[in-house]
Amino acid sequence: MIQTMEQLRETVCCCEKCGLAATRHNVVFGVGNPRAKVMFIGEGPGENEDLQGEPFVGRGGQLLDKLLTAVDLDRNKNIYIANMVKCRPPKNRDPLPEEMELCKPYLRSQVALIRPKIIVCLGRVSAIQLIKQDFKVTREHGQWFEKNGTWMMGTFHPAALLRNPGQKPEGLNDFIALREKILQVCPEVYGQQ
Ligand code: URA
Q1: What backbone phi and psi angles, to 5 degrees, belong to 75?
Q2: Within 6 Å (CB) of ligand 1, which residues are found?
Q3: Residue 2 — very low, low, confident or very high, per pLDDT cuts 50/70/90?
Q4: pLDDT cut 90: percent of the chain above it
Q5: How many Å lie between the centroid of ligand 1 and the Cα of residue 184?
Q6: Counting atoms of ligand 1 from 1, which one is nearest the CA of 55?
Q7: What are phi and psi of 15, to 5 degrees?
Q8: Is 115 left (phi over 0), alpha (psi -120 to 50) or beta?
Q9: Cβ proximity of 41 and 83 under 8 Å
Q10: Helix or strand or coil: residue 117?
């Protein structure tokens, strides 16, 4: 039984359950406040994340930080960020179903420890896994789904917004909708330091 986030981090950091362990530089466990009420879940580490051991630190990460700042969220204060898989898939391919299956218990433990009120899926891969199998980002981004008392929303992956900058206003609107939801269900987020 995993008891604390630090114990979980120690377990995950020496994981060799799938082939991604062989090519990784660092396990990208997650970042943020373990008492956060809002959790963001991406797909898997890219090159920069693999080298630095932290999620969303490349160009996409900088854009994510800007969107977070726009609605008074901060990865070091009032949110937690994790990925579906903790190790970089080579050449930034999508994680394979079996890699996600093997890694999912770690994410489940993170969610169980954090007990977020709101989960935001960054991009299609996590939205399909966590919200619904046929989730379509272009059609369903920004919509709220309630699952066992947790509010869930899927939005554009920051890398997709970099590729399609015309979608940035829609992406920003999703973050504004997120702020509204936070104020409704867990306003204490805005007092967290
Ligand atoms: N893309 C993701 O989905 N996660 C990261 O941590 C970085 C890029």
Answers
A1: -60, -20
A2: 28, 42-46, 49, 55-56, 60, 83
A3: low
A4: 97
A5: 28
A6: 6
A7: -65, 140
A8: left
A9: yes
A10: coil
- Name the one residue in this structure whose structure tokens are 């104020």: 183
- Distance (angstroms) between ligand 1 centre and the Cα of 177 equals 22
Q: How confident is the model at residue 52 (pLDDT cuts 50, 70, 90)?
A: very high
Residue 115 token pair: 């007990």
The alpha carbon of 93 and the centre of ligand 1 are apart by a number of angstroms equal to: 11
Provide the sign of the torsion angle of the four alpha carbons 179, 180, 186, 187, taken in this order: positive
- Residue of 49, 91, 130 to test ligand 1 pocket, by largest number of atoms within 8 Å of CB: 49
| Closest-CA residue to 153 (of 179, 176, 122, 183) | 122
Cα angle: 160, vertex 135, 124; to 5 degrees: 25
The answer to whether residue 1 scores a pLDDT higher than 90 is no
**Which ranges in the chain belong to alpha helices (H)?**
5-13, 20-23, 47-52, 59-70, 97-114, 124-130, 137-140, 158-163, 168-185
Pocket-testing residue among 157, 161, 162, ligand 1, by greatest number of atoms within 8 A of Cβ: 157
Residue 31 has pLDDT above 80, yes or no: yes
* CA gap 28, 144 in Å, rounded: 28
Distance 182 CA to ligand 1 centre (A): 23
Take residue 29 and report the two structure tokens written for it: 């466990």
